[in-house]
Write a structure and sequence with these properties.
Layout (H helix, E strand, L loop, with lengths): L17 E2 L15 E3 L2 E10 L18 E5 L12 E3 L15 E11 L12 E6 L2 E2 L1 E6 L2 E7 L5 E4 L9 E8 L8 E2 L2 E3 L2 E2 L3 E6 L7 E8 L4 E8 L3 E5 L4 E4 L3 E5 L11 E7 L3 E6 L4 E4 L2 E4 L2 E2 L2 E5 L13 H13 L4 E3 L7 H10 L2 E5 L3 E2 L18 H15 L5 E5 L8 H13 L4 E3 L12 E4 L3 H8 L7 H4 L3 E6 L10 H8 L5 E6 L7 E3 L3 E3 L27 H9 L3 E5 L5 E6 L9 E9 L2 E7 L10 E5 L12 E9 L11 E10 L13 E3 L2 E4 L2 E4 L5 E4 L2 E9 L6 H4 L9 H8 L4 E10 L4 E9 L5 E10 L4 E10 L8 E8 L4 E8 L12 E8 L16 E9 L2 E14 L3 H6 L12 E9 L22 E9 L7
Helix pairs in contact: 1-2, 3-4, 5-7
Length: 960
C-alpha cells in the first residue's frame, strides 16, 4: 500500500457534503449490539495549512511518539494548540465562496485501539464507525485505507468499516481542517472551535441488525388513544409491554394511552426487535398540528416559555458530557422554562433524550447560518446557489433522520440568519415530504412561504402587540399564522429588562405563542488572568467582544438574576392579590396539567419576619382556570408593622427534575401598610472647632460635608447620577434607536462637578446648597441637602431640580458615600437578589442579609449590578438607614468609576472603603444590547425630586 507524499486537499473547498458516509439514520443511545467508545486521549499534530503534511501518518506502523496528545471529544484550541476566535457574524476569513485561506489550521489525529475480548468474531456481521461531531471538515482513514471525508460539523457521519477491522492495533487516522467550504454554512455567532468535539464510536452491526427506523406515535385527544407504527428498513417486531402491544414493523395499532407533553412527559418503554438486534424505544404519544391559526399539541394551543441554547462549557467548549447536558435540562425545568430552540444546530442527541424524559418542547434547528453574507447584501449566498443545494439537503436530512424519534421535537427549523433562496425551499420541501407530523420554522422567511409560523427576532413590545391584534399586515398566508419570537430579551450583562411586559402580551393574545430568550449561557472561556475570556482576548484580528456573553447562566452555570427573573415571569401558576378582601387569585397557566402536583402554603410576615405559616386549600383548576381563594385571618398575636402574606406553590412530591417543596411559583399580598420613618427636628446645629454637630452627625463647617455619624466615619457623601453603563445601556452599534449609555457619556454624566453654593446652619437644620453639572454643558441639577435631627436619628432630605435643557433620562438619582469598615449587610425590602425598575418581578419583600462581596453580580464584563430595590431599611457598617420613600441599595468595595473602567472581573481590586449607593431611582435596563431599550415607563426622567433617609447607629452586623 502506498501513500502520497503530497497532500490532496481539494475536498476542503468542495461544496459537496463529502463522500464515503453511509445514509443518515435514527440515533439511539444503546442496544444489545456491541459498541466501543473511541473517546479518550489521541495523538495530535497541528499544521498551519491544509497541505503542509502528507498522509503517511495514516499508515499502519507510523511512529507518532513525538506528537502531542489531545482529549477527544475536544477542541484543540482549548488544549494549548492555537487560539479560539469569536465573531458574531463576520467571517474571520475573506469571503470568496467556496474558497478558504491558505492559512488553514489542520489537526492530524491518531488513535490506536484493540477490539475488546468479547467483541464478536470479525466474520460475524459488520461494523460502523460513527462521528457525532467534527468541526469543520474531516478526512478519515482506518488501517491505512481512506474511508471518506465529510462536512457538517454538528451532524453525525457513519462509515462502514467491518472489512477493515483487526482484532488488535487498529489505526484510526483523522485529519481535521478548521476552515472548509462548510464553514460558509456555519457562521453561527459563537466561538470558531475546530476539533473532534463529539463522541467517536465503533458499532458492531450483527447480521439482520436495525438500520433506520421511524417511530410514529400519534395521539387522538378526542378519543384518548394513541396510534403506533414503526417503519423500519429491516423487518422486525415492536413490543410495548405496558400497552400489550406486539406488532410487526410497518403495522399500526391504536390503544388507550396517556399523551406526552412537556408538562407531563409520559414515555412508554418499548423495543424494536430485528433478527440481529434489540433496540430500546422510548415512545411518547403526541400530535402536533397547525389548526385555527395556532400551533396545537394534542388539540391544545401551547405557549412557549423558551430559551435558545448553544452548547457550551467554559473549559471544554462544545464538548459536553451527559452530566452537563442533564444539568442544563434540570436548570431549565427548575426555572419554569418549557421550551428550547437548539440554536443554531442540532445538539448532542443525548440532550434530546433528556428533553423527552424530563419534558421540554424542542425546536430542532439545522446546522446552517450564512449571516456574514449580509455584509455584501447577501450576494453569492450559498442558500440561493444551486451548487450548494446538495449540501443543504444533506444537512437537513442528517438532522431529521437522526432526531425524528424524539417526541420532544415539535418543530423543525431550517437554520438561522441565512437570508433567502432556492436551497431553503428545497430543504423545506424535503423535510415536509419526509415528516409531515411536525411544523416548520425559519425566521428569515418573512412572508412564510415555506414555514408554518411567523417568526421574528427582537421585535419591540409595541410591534408584538400589533401582531397579536392582527394589525401587522404582510401576506395573506402570514396573517393567518401563529407568531413566535424565536429570539428576544437579549440576556447580555445586566438584564434583560421588560420580560414581564412581554409576557403580559403573550398571555393576552392567542396568536402570540411565546418566545425564546437569547440565550441560555455566557460563552466565557476560563482564563487564568482574566477569569473568563471573550472576543478579542486571544488577539483575534476580527472579533465582537463580549457579545458572546449574553446568557441567562454565567459560564460556570450559576443562574444570573436574569434567569431568576425569567422564572418568576413565566410561572405556570399565577398568584395575585385581588380586591384587598383577604383573598388571592390562583390561576393555572399551564396548557395541559392540573395543579395536583403542587401544594400551596402561606406565610404571614411582619417587617419581613415570618409570624405564622400554614397550608392553603386550592381547588382543582384545569388549564386556564382561576379561583379566588380566601386567606386565613391574620394571626391574633402578630406584632404591629408592615405585613405581607406570601403564598407559594411548591412541588407536593419529589419529581425527576426537582425535590419535594421546590418553589414553582409565589406571590405576595400586602396586609398592613408601612410606617414612614419620622424625625422631629428638635436638635440644633452646633458649630465649633471647624465642624458642625447636629445630633449624631458631624459635618465640615466650611463645606457642609458629613464626616461621621456617631463613631462611624463617613466619606464623600454627595448626589450621584452615574452608573457603570450596562451592555444594554450602550446598545448595539447597528441599532437606530437611541442608545442612552453613549448619550450619557457625551453629556458628561460620568464626570459631574459639584459646586458648593452655600452652607446654612439654621435654627433646627443644616442646609447645604449645591449645583451638580458636567463640564461644557448648561444642564445641571440644583441640589439641596437638608439635615435635621431629634438627637438620636439624623435625617437627610435631598431636593433636586433640573436646570437647563435635559434631553436624556438620568442613569440614577440618589446619594453615594463611603464607609471604612463593612462586611455584613442586613435589609428589609426587595430581595434576595438584584433588581431594577423593569427586572423586579422576582424581588420579594422580606428581611435579608448578605455580605458586601456576595451582593455583587459577577457579569463577565463588569457593569452596574447588585441593586436591591424597595428597601425600607438597611444596616451596614454600624449604620441603620431608613428611607422615605423606599430606596435602592448598592454596596461595593470599588467605586462606580473603577467598575466602569473594568473590562474583566479581575480588573476590580477591593479597596479599604465600601461605597454605598442609596438611590431614589435608576433608569430601566431593557435589552438594547440586541433589542429594544427600556419602555418609557421605566425611564428615570430628569424632573424635580425629593427623597429622604434617616441615619442612626447600630451594632455592626459583623459582630452579630
Amino acid at each position: 500500500m502506498s501513500f502520497r507524499t503530497t497532500t490532496e486537499s481539494a475536498y476542503v473547498e468542495d461544496v459537496s457534503p463529502g463522500s464515503g458516509a453511509l445514509p443518515p439514520r435514527a440515533w439511539y443511545a444503546s442496544s444489545d449490539a456491541r459498541s466501543l467508545s473511541l473517546n479518550g486521549s489521541w495523538r495530535f499534530r497541528l499544521a498551519q495549512t491544509a497541505d503542509a503534511e502528507d498522509d503517511s501518518f495514516a499508515a499502519e506502523g507510523y511512529d507518532a511518539g513525538d506528537w502531542a496528545e489531545v482529549s477527544v471529544p475536544g477542541h484543540w484550541v482549548l488544549q494549548g494548540h492555537g487560539s479560539p476566535i469569536y465573531t458574531n457574524h463576520l467571517y474571520p476569513f475573506p469571503v470568496d465562496p467556496p474558497h478558504v485561506p491558505t492559512e488553514n489550521p489542520t489537526g492530524d489525529h491518531l488513535r490506536v485501539f484493540d477490539l475488546p475480548a468479547d467483541w464478536p468474531d470479525l466474520a460475524e456481521g459488520g461494523a460502523v464507525l460513527r462521528f457525532d461531531g467534527v468541526e469543520s471538515c474531516a478526512r478519515v482513514w482506518l488501517n491505512g485505507t481512506e474511508i471518506g471525508e465529510f462536512k457538517g460539523s454538528r451532524l453525525p457521519h457513519e462509515f462502514a468499516v467491518g472489512h477493515l477491522l483487526k482484532t488488535a492495533d487498529n489505526v484510526l487516522a483523522v485529519r481535521v481542517h478548521q476552515w472548509s467550504a462548510g464553514s460558509y454554512l456555519e457562521d453561527q455567532d459563537q466561538w470558531w472551535l475546530p476539533g473532534i468535539f463529539r463522541d467517536v464510536t465503533l458499532l458492531h452491526r450483527p447480521a439482520g441488525a436495525a438500520l433506520d427506523f421511524f417511530v410514529h406515535a400519534a395521539y387522538d385527544h378526542l378519543a384518548g388513544t394513541g396510534t403506533l407504527k414503526v417503519d423500519s428498513d429491516v423487518e422486525g417486531r415492536v413490543t410495548v409491554a405496558e400497552l400489550g402491544i406486539d406488532i410487526a414493523t410497518g403495522e399500526s395499532v391504536t390503544v388507550p394511552v396517556e399523551p406526552w407533553s412537556a408538562e407531563v412527559p409520559r414515555l412508554y418503554t418499548g423495543e424494536l426487535v430485528t433478527e440481529g438486534e434489540r433496540v430500546p424505544l422510548r415512545i411518547g404519544f403526541r400530535t402536533v398540528e397547525l389548526s385555527d391559526g395556532l400551533i396545537k399539541v394534542n388539540g391544545r394551543p401551547v405557549l412557549f416559555k423558551g430559551v435558545n441554547r448553544h452548547e457550551w462549557h467554559p473549559e471544554k467548549g462544545r464538548a459536553l458530557d451527559l452530566e452537563t447536558m442533564r444539568e442544563d435540562v434540570l436548570l431549565m425545568k427548575r426555572h419554569n422554562v418549557n421550551a428550547v430552540r437548539t440554536s443554531h444546530y442540532p445538539p448532542h442527541p443525548a440532550f434530546l433524550d433528556l428533553c423527552d424524559e424530563l419534558g421540554l418542547w424542542v425546536i430542532d434547528e439545522c446546522d446552517l447560518e450564512t449571516h456574514g453574507f449580509t455584509e455584501q447584501g447577501w450576494r453569492d449566498n450559498p442558500v440561493d446557489d444551486d451548487r450548494w443545494t446538495p449540501a443543504l439537503l444533506d444537512r437537513a436530512s442528517r438532522m431529521v433522520e437522526r432526531d425524528k424519534n424524539h417526541p420532544s421535537i415539535v418543530i423543525w427549523s431550517l437554520g438561522n440568519e441565512a437570508g433567502t433562496g432556492r436551497g431553503l425551499t428545497a430543504m423545506a420541501e424535503w423535510i415536509k415530504g419526509r415528516d409531515s407530523s411536525r411544523l416548520l420554522h425559519y425566521e428569515g422567511d418573512i412572508d412564510c412561504r415555506d414555514t408554518d409560523m411567523y417568526s421574528r427576532m427582537y421585535a419591540s413590545h409595541a410591534e408584538v402587540e400589533r401582531i397579536g391584534q392582527d394589525l401587522d399586515g404582510g401576506t395573506h398566508k402570514r396573517r393567518g399564522l401563529p407568531f413566535i419570537l424565536c429570539e428576544y430579551a437579549h440576556a447580555m450583562g445586566n438584564g434583560p429588562g421588560g420580560l414581564a411586559d412581554y409576557q403580559r402580551l403573550f398571555e393576552s393574545y392567542d396568536r402570540l405563542q411565546g418566545a425564546f430568550v437569547w440565550e441560555w449561557i455566557d460563552h466565557g472561556i476560563t482564563h487564568p488572568e482574566l477569569g473568563y475570556a471573550y472576543g478579542g482576548d486571544f488577539g483575534e484580528e476580527l472579533h465582537d467582544g463580549n457579545f458572546v456573553c449574553d446568557g441567562l447562566l454565567f459560564p460556570d452555570r450559576r443562574p444570573s438574576p436574569g434567569l431568576v427573573e425569567y422564572k418568576k415571569v413565566i410561572e405556570p401558576v399565577g398568584i395575585d392579590a385581588t380586591a384587598g378582601d383577604g383573598t388571592v387569585r390562583i390561576t393555572n397557566k399551564q396548557d395541559f396539567a392540573g395543579l395536583s402536583a403542587l401544594a400551596f402554603t402561606w406565610s404571614y410576615e411582619v417587617e419581613g419576619e415570618p409570624v405564622e405559616t400554614g397550608t392553603l386549600a386550592v381547588p382543582a383548576l384545569a388549564p386556564g382556570e382561576s379561583a379566588d381563594v380566601k386567606l386565613p385571618a391574620p394571626p391574633a398575636a402578630a406584632p404591629a408593622g408592615e405585613a405581607h402574606w406570601t403564598v407559594r406553590a411548591v412541588l407536593a412530591a419529589d419529581t425527576p427534575w426537582a425535590p419535594k417543596d421546590h418553589v414553582v411559583a409565589w406571590g405576595q399580598v400586602q396586609a398592613a401598610q408601612r410606617r414612614t420613618p419620622s424625625v422631629a427636628p428638635t436638635a440644633r446645629p452646633v458649630p465649633g472647632g471647624g465642624v458642625i454637630t447636629l445630633g449624631p452627625g458631624t459635618f465640615d463647617a466650611r463645606t457642609g460635608a458629613l464626616t461621621a455619624i456617631g463613631d462611624v466615619p463617613v466619606t464623600g457623601l454627595r448626589l450621584d447620577v452615574w452608573r457603570a453603563t450596562t451592555d444594554n445601556d450602550d446598545g448595539a452599534v447597528w441599532q437606530d434607536d437611541t442608545r442612552y449609555g453613549l448619550l450619557w457619556r457625551t453629556l458628561g454624566l460620568h464626570r459631574m462637578r459639584h459646586r458648593l453654593d452655600a452652607v446654612e446652619a439654621g435654627e433646627n437644620a443644616l442646609t447645604v446648597r449645591t449645583r451638580v453639572a458636567p463640564a461644557a454643558r448648561e444642564a445641571g441639577l440644583s441640589t439641596v441637602y437638608r439635615w435635621t435631627s431629634d438627637g438620636d436619628g439624623l435625617r437627610l432630605t435631598v431636593h433636586t431640580t433640573p436646570e437647563g435643557e435635559w434631553t436624556v433620562p438620568l442613569p440614577r438619582l440618589g446619594i453615594r458615600f463611603g464607609l471604612s469598615a463593612t462586611d455584613r449587610v442586613r435589609w428589609f425590602g426587595g430581595g434576595p437578589g438584584e433588581a431594577y425598575a423593569d427586572t423586579r418581578m422576582a424581588s420579594a419583600v422580606g428581611r435579608w442579609q448578605s455580605t458586601v462581596d456576595d451582593m455583587q453580580t459577577p457579569y463577565v464584563r463588569p457593569q452596574e449590578n447588585g441593586a436591591r430595590i424597595d428597601v425600607r431599611w438597611a444596616e451596614l457598617g454600624g449604620l441603620r438607614i431608613e428611607g422615605d420613600p423606599v430606596f435602592s441599595l448598592t454596596a461595593r468595595r470599588w467605586t462606580t468609576e473603577q467598575l466602569d473602567a473594568a473590562t474583566h472581573r479581575t480588573d476590580l481590586t477591593p479597596g479599604d472603603t465600601v461605597w454605598v449607593n442609596l438611590d431614589h431611582g435608576q433608569h430601566g435596563i431593557g435589552s438594547q444590547s440586541c433589542g429594544p431599550g427600556p419602555l418609557p415607563q421605566y425611564h428615570l426622567r430628569a424632573e424635580p425630586a425629593e427623597f429622604s433617609f434617616v441615619f442612626s447607629t447600630v451594632q455592626d452586623p459583623r459582630s452579630s
